[in-house]
UniProtKB/TrEMBL annotation, chain A:
Pfam families: FtsX, MacB_PCD. The chain crosses the membrane at residues 116-136, 383-405, 434-457, 477-500, 525-545, 768-792, 820-838, 850-872. It comes from the Bacteria. It is found in: Cell membrane. It is a multi-pass membrane protein. Signal peptide: none annotated. It comes from Spirosoma endophyticum. This is FtsX-like permease family protein. One of its GO terms (cellular component) is plasma membrane. Keywords: Cell membrane, Membrane, Transmembrane, Transmembrane helix.
Automatic annotation (TrEMBL), chain B:
Residues 22-90 form the Transcription regulator PadR N-terminal domain. It comes from Spirosoma endophyticum. Pfam families: PadR. InterPro entries: Tscrpt_reg_PadR_N, WH-like_DNA-bd_sf, WH_DNA-bd_sf. It comes from the Bacteria. Coiled coil: none annotated. This is Transcriptional regulator PadR-like family protein.
Length: 891, 112
């Protein structure tokens, strides 16, 4: 044979050889390389090596096929037909996993009701936990969309009044300039106005009431607001306005708003300089429009007159951005005394009020906004935590359910384990089988949970007033969900997997093993844990509702039905008498008055009051203040304790004052009417005493209040004639307001609606916890139902024998119910002190609160027992009514 | 029995393996078929078919001797298994039956 081929000049292309070497599966490599070389050699001799090389490449291309690089499994088929095919496969072999899943699906389909209970319960639990998770994520990630999230701070100030250290975001006007000029730590300083923010924007003949604020020009960069259209520095010129895209659309429709003019509060023409994207709903900085900070000085002369250089009046807010790498603690130390230094001439401020300026980081704005005695004590975070705990409760309850039902069912499968082992199944394979079965159920529950969450999210958004979405694109979401599902599946499957697989097949198949006894204790403990959680939730919900109702039932001291308040304007105040006359003439209005705040809020508080016997320290005592003139008591609907309302008949009443009972107590006045008080440089006479009006939080102590005769009007309050329906009255007074207040849309608020908003958070929490606890009970009952049916089934023979021996249906029912009733009673005993402690903690933040009575616990105990009995009675009766002949005949 | 469905190419390869008897390996099959069918055979196609036949249990393989033109590498030698022979016989029987039942007139009476 010619051996030419071994000489180097006759070799196939090197690249082709290398490629072949690289891609061929190891077990095929020797044979294929040999074949290719042999063919090359033969062809080279026959028709020349040039052609052989070409054919080598062609053959290589035609070899390209998965079979060329597929590893060992490609040779699997050989095993199948070899005589060694009974060698056990690894328990993780693809064939085995396919088999596990097949068995799992068969089991699920065979026990349909059990599967439905199990999957359904777990899915509901997962869905609730997911919704709560989305909600918590929305709260926790609030404000994170600002690029300078890490370096933005709000400037706040602690001050001591009447022995209490309070914290406020209201600051003196000149602080902004000083922060900018004297402290190099700041990259930017932005002042803003803390007013009500509702202003009238007029475009052509259309009037819009929108919310916005005056803010420094650096705010655009600081808060990384997205400019969709227009100037990059749009707040530079004083007569400009920045609109959100939403507002721009409302005002100008589809026209380009840039450069258009609109009228602010019917007085000032402003040019639209930019349109920015609306802030997400969980952002702290919210607005429909922004106005340049300098504009206020142009519009309001009192800003320059009273505020520009005044360090003693705190009405303004400030945001700052620190330069990169600056430690806020150091900056805090520097700015601490900046207000105090300017006011150090006043001994009262130096010695007792002691204003201390500090920075509050953006990360804490939403959830940690509360301060007590100068310490940051949290805030909304307590609700986030509460619901985190609720979510965890529900999940634990659902998992316990899942585990209990899975383990209870799996005991029925001891025989299956025996047979499998006898046939040659290894322990690992059994573990694999049980684990993959429970993981499959968990995965199905996850799918169902996603199916439940998606349609319920819009309702959840309405309930929580948010715009949350599931972040399907977020890998964190998926990893949490997948890890949780695997965890639940593996945990629930671990008991049957590890315990049942350890049995000796001979004993099982002989029928000698009774797995029920040894396994029932942990299951009982789990049921107790589950019901404890449910009962805690139930008690908690009832107490929250009781507290809400208690607050609602608190006498407000005034009649909020049939009372409306309207934003005032200079025009309305100037023509007040004429307006009043026309309104009264309609017959729809029985009374009208002016005030500085709406009847459901108190906006002003002041110190510096002096009274008979007051000490110099008492000057720092804070009294909330309402300013008004005539007809306040009549309009608001207050029943006076003593004295009378301000009256037009007494000219001296322009120096009159009304006080509430708390104020009388604080001042220690025996006979308040006629007492002389001194405040703001004027001597004032007490003309009447009002009861403690609930105008702030209905759950807090009523602060001492002074109602002062001053014209700081911001609101008009209108008492509707009780004989006229409110909707009719509104129709009648609307044209009058339109006539007297041409620059503003007629915008009114009913006091009773506003009053009910005070309960918003409590009601939200109450409703959410009601939903959570109903679901918790539901899931627990599902589990109980499943367990009861399992128990009844296990004891079929026992019940049959008992019946033969003369047991009645009631006897059997009692027999089956007894165990569960015991467990529920134990749960209630454990849950009651836990719930009592937790709810007492919750109530601590309220001054006006219920005391938790024993009644709640009794009611919940009875309810829990009833629910339990109802749940298991179906199974108990079914078992008790079974004909013993049938149950004993089987086998 | 699974694997009795033989494709045409599979059948040809199987027959060639039987024909080459003691020296049936891929290159030999390629050469043999290349001559008999008078068209170039792709090594890849032959290879894959032989693998498939082995998975179906119709052929059995073992490593043979190594030769110099293979760069000292061994060849994989195939032999037809009993199952393979059975399949071939079956397919032949079906064909024969079909031929036998074709009416004389169908091919102009010239069929023997």
């Amino acid at each position: 044979m010619n051996r030419k081929s071994i000489f180097p000049q006759h070799k196939p292309p090197r690249w082709a050889q290398r490629l072949l070497e690289r891609i061929t599966a190891p077990h095929l490599r020797e044979e294929i390389q040999g074949d290719m070389d042999e063919l090359f050699d033969k062809r080279g001799q026959r028709s020349g090596y040039a052609k052989a090389r070409l054919l080598y490449v062609v053959d290589l291309l035609l070899l390209l096929h998965p079979r060329l690089w597929r590893r060992e499994p490609a040779r699997m088929g050989k095993l199948r037909h070899s005589k060694f095919n009974d060698i056990p496969k690894s328990f993780l072999h693809p064939d085995m996993i396919r088999n596990y899943l097949k068995i799992a699906v068969r089991n699920l389909v065979k026990n349909k009701s059990y599967s439905a209970i199990n999957i359904g319960g777990l899915a509901v639990g997962m869905a609730v936990a997911m919704l709560i998770g989305i909600w918590i994520n929305d709260e926790v990630s609030a404000n994170e969309h600002h690029k300078n999230y890490e370096t933005i701070y709000e400037v706040k100030m602690h001050q001591t009044f009447d022995g209490h250290r309070g914290t406020q975001d209201a600051l003196p006007f000149p602080i902004g300039e000083e922060l900018k000029a004297n402290y190099p730590d700041f990259k930017a300083v932005v002042m803003y106005d803390r007013g009500d923010g509702h202003r009238s924007l007029i475009v052509g003949a259309q009037k819009f009431l929108k919310y916005g604020l005056y803010i420094g020009e650096d705010a655009i960069d600081m808060f990384s607001l997205t400019i969709l259209n227009g100037d990059k520095n749009p707040l530079k010129e004083p007569y400009s306005i920045v609109l959100t895209d939403e507002t721009a659309h409302a005002l100008f429709g589809n026209q380009d708003p840039i450069g258009k003019t609109l009228k602010l509060d019917n007085t000032t023409d402003l040019k639209v300089t930019a349109v920015v994207a609306r802030q997400p709903t969980n952002a702290t900085l919210q607005f429909d429009y922004l106005l340049p900070w300098q504009l206020q000085e142009k519009i309001y002369d009192w800003v320059v007159k009273y505020h520009k250089t005044n360090w003693g009046n705190n009405s303004w807010g400030a945001f700052v951005q620190l330069k990169e790498g600056i430690d806020p603690a150091q900056t805090n130390a520097k700015i601490k005394d900046m207000v105090l230094t300017h006011l150090s001439n006043d001994p009262n401020i130096r010695k007792s009020i002691k204003p201390e300026v500090f920075l509050h980081p953006m990360a804490k704005w939403r959830l940690y906004s509360e301060f007590t005695e100068g310490e940051n004590t949290g805030g909304f975070i307590k609700y986030v935590r509460l619901f985190g705990i609720f979510g965890a409760f529900i999940l634990v309850i659902a998992c316990i359910n899942f585990m209990n039902l899975s383990t209870a069912r799996s005991e029925k499968r001891a025989k299956e384990v025996g047979v499998r082992k006898a046939v040659g199944s290894g322990r690992k394979q059994l573990i694999g089988q049980f684990l993959s079965e429970s993981t499959l159920i968990a995965a199905l529950a996850l799918l169902l949970a996603l199916g439940l969450v998606m349609p319920s999210l819009p309702y959840f958004n309405t309930l929580t007033e948010k715009t949350m979405t599931i972040e399907f694109g977020n890998p964190v979401f998926w990893s949490v969900v997948v890890i949780f599902t695997l965890f639940t599946g593996l945990l629930a499957g671990s008991y049957p997997a590890l315990y049942l697989s350890s049995f000796n097949p001979v004993t099982i198949l002989k029928g000698g093993v009774h797995v029920g006894k040894s396994a029932s204790l942990p299951r009982k403990i789990l049921v107790v844990v589950q019901f404890t959680f449910s009962v805690v939730l139930m008690i908690g919900t009832i107490i929250i509702y009781q507290q809400i109702q208690y607050g609602k039932n608190r006498p407000a001291g005034f009649t909020n039905k049939g009372l409306i308040s309207i934003n005032s304007s200079s025009h309305l105040v100037t023509h007040f008498e004429a307006l009043r006359a026309e309104l009264l003439a309609t017959g729809a209005v029985s009374s009208i008055c002016q005030s500085n705040s709406p009847p459901t809020q108190i906006w002003s508080s002041n110190s510096g009051w002096e009274w008979k016997g007051s000490t110099p320290e008492d000057k720092s005592a804070v009294f909330t203040t309402i300013t008004t003139n005539y007809d306040y008591i009549k309009t608001i609907g207050i029943r006076l304790k003593e004295g009378r309302d301000f009256s037009r008949d007494f000219t001296t009443d322009s120096l009159g004052v009304l006080v509430n009972e708390s104020a009388v107590k604080r001042m220690g006045l025996k006979h308040p009417v006629g007492e002389k008080l001194r405040w703001a440089g004027k001597d004032r006479t007490v003309v009447g005493v009002v009861p403690d009006l609930v105008m702030d939080s209905p759950y807090q102590a009523i602060r001492p209040l002074t109602i002062v005769f001053e014209n700081w009007t911001a609101f008009l309050n209108v008492r509707i004639n009780p004989a006229v329906a409110p909707s009719v009255a509104i129709q009648k007074i609307r044209p009058i307001f339109d006539k007297f207040n041409p620059g503003f849309p007629f915008d009114y608020k009913f006091a009773d609606t506003e009053y009910n908003k005070k309960f918003y958070y409590e009601e939200l929490i109450g409703n959410l916890s009601a939903i959570v606890s109903v679901l918790a009970i539901f899931i627990s009952c599902l589990g109980l139902f499943g367990l009861a049916s399992f128990m009844a089934e296990q004891r079929t023979k026992e019940i049959g024998i008992r019946k033969v021996l003369g047991a009645s249906v009631a006897n059997v029912w009692a027999l089956l119910s007894k165990d569960f009733v015991q467990l529920v009673i134990i749960s209630c005993l454990v849950a009651s002190p836990v719930a009592w402690y937790a709810m007492n903690k919750w109530l601590e933040s309220y001054t006006y609160k219920i005391s938790i009575g024993a009644g709640v616990f009794l009611v919940v105990l009875i309810a829990a027992l009833l629910i339990t009995l109802l749940t298991i009675s179906y199974q108990a009766f079914k078992a008790a009514l079974l004909n013993p002949v049938k149950s004993l005949k089987s086998e | 029995m699974k694997g009795t469905q033989l494709g045409e190419f599979e059948e040809i390869i199987l027959l060639t393996i039987a024909l080459l008897y003691d020296d049936a390996y891929s290159v030999a099959v390629v050469e043999e078929l290349g001559q008999r069918l008078e068209r170039p055979m792709s090594l890849g196609a032959v290879h894959r078919t032989m693998q498939r036949l082995e998975e179906k249990g119709l052929v059995h393989s073992r490593f043979g001797e190594s030769t110099a033109e293979r760069g000292g590498r061994r060849k994989r030698l195939f032999t037809v298994t009993a199952a393979g022979e059975e399949v071939l016989q079956e397919s032949r029987r079906i064909r024969n039956n079909l031929w036998a039942d074709i009416p004389k007139a169908a091919f102009g009476g010239s069929v023997a």
